[in-house]
Specification:
heterodimer, A: Rossmann fold, 17 helices, 20 strands, 25% strand, globular, B: mainly alpha, ABC transporter involved in vitamin B12 uptake, BtuC, two-stranded antiparallel sheet, 13 helices
């Protein structure tokens, strides 16, 4: 087999940190090759080197046996490699057509002919079967559509090698399936792909080979078929880690969270939900199922049209977050960057926001007591930080999420609602976070877990599956992936 | 629908024309409207400059100081010491090129601090606003420059084909701006940079170079605005341009240019200038006291903003 893309003995340093230390990767022509590793293993750095955005300090990159072009020659790079980055490179204020032909709108002429540009865009969209209006503003597209536009743009440069950097992180189940179908058909057309994901099951589903990076080094490259799941995880973490074992819970009799007759136009209709102490209830469903909207209503972030929410026996005014927190609720919001933490403030402040009133009197916050509380949470959740004074913005994804958990757990809540608790965090952090939920439940709390990831839902005593805004099934513990997904997709057996 | 987004202020302009016509019979005369345009010509160049800088996701407050300082320093390099100059006595024909060059240099220095040293554009240009204005007050010691060379007075006072030259100049530059930002790759690069700087870089746009260009062009346009204003007034006072920047931002923003970058058009900004100019004119015609005009200005800006919010339908940033 021909080697399509190769990086040899790559070293890249950023100041005192070594992001890549003699790393290598070899990708055969026409294969879909996974690159996995924990946060900070050097995956993103390798991507920027393979796409020519950064120059390696040592080592070389070769495409089909030939040395990579000069860094300044962007066009040459784009003919060799295309990348769908983790962070969207779509410009929301511009149209789809212009995004597709960014910085090459005029096709060699001085003046941009907008009509021709739209026609060219439509041609590209048709070629790659992307069902999007070329004149639409990119900002109005869904996440999935934007990604398809990015893929189409990447391919339109003529590259036969595409890097997909965590493309599924923000997609729901059906969208992921559609993406995989598309990837398979690209592979049949002979396109080589490098696939980066934290979801190992996706690696097994879509990739032929896998390369594991750990601590800035290459650990192993294997055929996916010859590499059992446990070994893959062990290669990533450097130690044998068993899959997360959900614990047994013994739900009590007292209902700690109750939603009755909840409806919100366009989100969900007529929902009744109750969670007992010591019980974990899951909410599953596709992105359009309304599960996140429902969870946000339970914590007070959204105001329902009708219905009531009771936390710990107290009727909470709809849409009133402080009241819900006072009643004993802790929650982890969907997007930690958006609602989870204030990046410039310290770990200590972020973790203690909800209980600031308990840390001093007359609106004052005692720094000593805050520090003590923060240190207790840092220890309890094993947050890797220099100390309570480090800004959360400096932490890695997994540790930042732990700070969000700390904020939810700091007041020892009776009700815990977590939305996508393990999004974008690595295997070990994932286990710690799920463990934190179960710890709270063992202390007598009731928990609601909303997640797109089936692994998160395994800790639930029952899973409520939502479809188009309604709860369609209450699945008790012991389900199989296939069963649950079938219900989520609306394919009731 | 999308193509009409630039034109949300057109109903406001029509409304102002109707209201103006009812309030004062002289309002809708050619003479008065020409007057409005001429008064707005200089400030409109600043709006053009600021719009491009805002679209590219940056900020420049110092433009208003350049309006006074660039022509003043250029004039002082030319006129004799007795008239308030430096006594260097460069040829009078050089005064306009010199002024433009000074404006470009101020823009380049702003760009240098903001792009090279990655300083905050807001604070850098705030400091530059103060410093550049100081370079007007220091050398002139606060005095007004009266004895100006002929060449600098020409553009601001000449008539071309029956209209003041300043209107032609502003018109041509706006047309160039609308074309450049609408139909040239370089112009579209401003939107890409302001919309998502990493995406622009990944698309192969030379981000730093384009931004330098925008700051330099901005400074040059501000200097040209100063030249027009100098010609119109026949002298350079030590507060020429002072306070303009608020109107400039108001015009750009009600015209649909986003303070967060990546959004807005030059045509929209032009409608913003016209709204401000018409309001100013109507207030003067109906004899509203100059001391009360700011209250009404401010309110008009807020109302225009609300109208474009309703017409645009989206939250403004």
């Amino acid at each position: 087999m021909n080697i399509h893309v190769e990086a040899r003995n790559v070293v890249k340093r950023f100041g005192p940190t070594t992001a890549l230390n003699g790393a290598k990767i070899e990708i055969a022509e026409g294969e879909t090759h996974a690159l996995v590793g924990r946060n900070g293993a050097g995956k993103s750095t390798l991507v920027s080197i393979l796409t020519g955005l950064q120059r390696p300090d040592e080592g070389e990159v070769r495409f089909s046996g030939q040395a990579a072009p000069a860094l300044a020659d962007r066009d040459a790079w784009r003919q060799r490699v295309a990348c769908v980055y983790q962070k969207s490179t779509i410009i929301p204020a511009l149209t789809v057509a212009e995004n597709l032909f960014l910085n090459r709108q005029s096709d060699g002429h001085a003046r941009i002919n907008w009509r021709k540009l739209r026609a060219r865009a439509r041609e590209v969209l048709d070629t790659y079967e992307v069902d999007v209006d070329a004149q639409a503003l990119a900002g109005d597209l869904s996440v999935e559509q934007r990604q398809l536009v990015e893929i189409a743009r990447a391919l339109s440069f003529g590259a036969r090698f595409i890097i997909l950097d965590e493309p599924t992180a923000r997609l729901d189940g059906p969208a992921i399936e559609r993406l995989f179908t598309r990837m398979r058909s690209l592979r049949e057309q002979g396109v080589t792909m490098m696939y980066i994901s934290h979801h190992l099951d996706e690696v097994y589903e879509i990739c032929q080979s896998v390369t594991v990076f750990r601590d800035a080094r290459h650990v192993t490259t294997r055929r996916v078929a010859d590499l059992p799941h446990d070994e893959l995880v062990a290669a990533m973490t450097g130690e044998a880690t068993a899959a997360y074992e959900a614990r047994e819970h013994t739900p009590g009799e007292r209902v700690v969270l109750r939603g009755a007759g909840l409806s919100l136009t366009g989100r969900y209709t007529d929902i009744d939900i109750s969670v007992k102490e010591g019980e974990v209830v899951g909410l599953a469903g596709s992105a359009s199922s309304g599960k996140v909207g429902l969870a946000e209503t339970l914590v007070g972030l959204r105001k329902p049209d009708t219905g009531t929410v009771e936390v710990n026996g107290t009727r909470v005014r709809p849409g009133d977050v402080p009241a819900a927190i006072r009643a004993g609720l802790g929650f982890v919001p969907e997007d930690r960057h958006h609602e989870g933490f204030v990046p410039l403030l310290s770990v200590g402040e972020n973790a203690t926001f909800p209980i600031a009133r308990k840390l001093g009197r007359y609106g004052l916050v005692s720094p000593a007591r805050r520090r003590a509380t923060a240190e207790r949470m840092i220890a309890a959740l094993d947050i890797k930080t220099e100390g309570p004074d480090q800004p959360v913005g400096d932490l890695s994804g997994g540790n930042a999420q732990k700070v969000v958990f700390a904020r939810a757990l700091v007041d020892d809540p009776t009700v815990l609602v977590v939305i996508n608790p393990t999004a974008g965090v690595d295997v070990k952090a994932k286990q710690a976070l799920l463990g934190a939920v179960e710890d709270a439940v063992e202390r007598g709390a009731g928990a609601v877990v909303v997640s797109d990831e089936l692994d998160d839902l395994r800790i639930c005593d029952r899973v409520l599956v939502m479809f188009h805004g309604r709860v369609v099934k209450d699945v008790p513990r012991g389900w199989t992936d296939h069963e649950l997904v079938a219900v989520m997709e609306g394919m009731e057996e | 629908m999308a193509r009409f987004r630039d034109l949300t202020l057109v109903p406001v302009i029509v409304l102002l024309l109707i209201v103006g016509a009812f309030l004062d019979p002289t309002f809708l005369t050619a003479g008065n409207l020409t007057n409005v345009l001429q008064q707005q010509a200089a400030i409109s160049l600043l709006v053009l400059a600021e719009s491009m800088i805002l679209i590219a996701g940056k900020f420049d407050l110092s433009l208003e100081s350049t309006v006074g300082t660039a022509p003043a320093i250029a004039v002082m390099l030319v006129i004799p010491a007795a008239a308030g100059g430096f006594g260097i006595g460069l040829p009078g024909a050089l005064v306009i090129p010199l002024a433009l060059l000074i404006g470009a240099a101020i823009g380049a220095f702003n760009g240098f601090l903001i792009i090279r040293f990655q300083l905050s554009a807001f604070i850098v240009t705030l400091a530059m606003l103060i410093i550049v204005h100081g370079f007007l007050q220091g050398p002139t010691e606060g005095k007004t420059l009266f004895q100006l060379p002929e060449s600098i007075l020409y553009l601001g006072s000449a008539m071309w084909l029956g209209l003041p030259a300043a209107i032609w100049i502003a018109g041509v530059l706006f047309a160039a701006g609308i074309f450049g930002l609408g139909y040239l790759r370089l112009g579209r690069a401003l939107y890409a940079i302001g919309g998502n700087i990493d995406a622009a870089r990944a698309a192969g746009i030379r981000v730093d170079r384009v931004l330098y260009g925008v700051f330099i062009l901005g400074g040059t346009l501000a200097a040209l605005a100063g030249i027009l204003e100098t010609g119109r007034l026949g002298a350079i006072g030590n507060n020429q341009g002072v306070g303009w920047i608020f109107m400039v931002f108001a015009a750009a923003v009600i015209g649909g240019v986003s303070m967060d970058g990546g959004k807005g058009t030059i045509l929209g900004a032009l409608t913003g200038v016209l709204v401000i100019g018409l309001v100013q004119n109507i207030l003067t015609l109906i004899g509203v006291s100059g001391f009360w005009q700011p209250v009404i200005y401010g309110s008009i800006i807020l109302i225009a903003l609300m109208i474009s919010r309703i017409a645009g339908g989206k939250a403004q940033d």
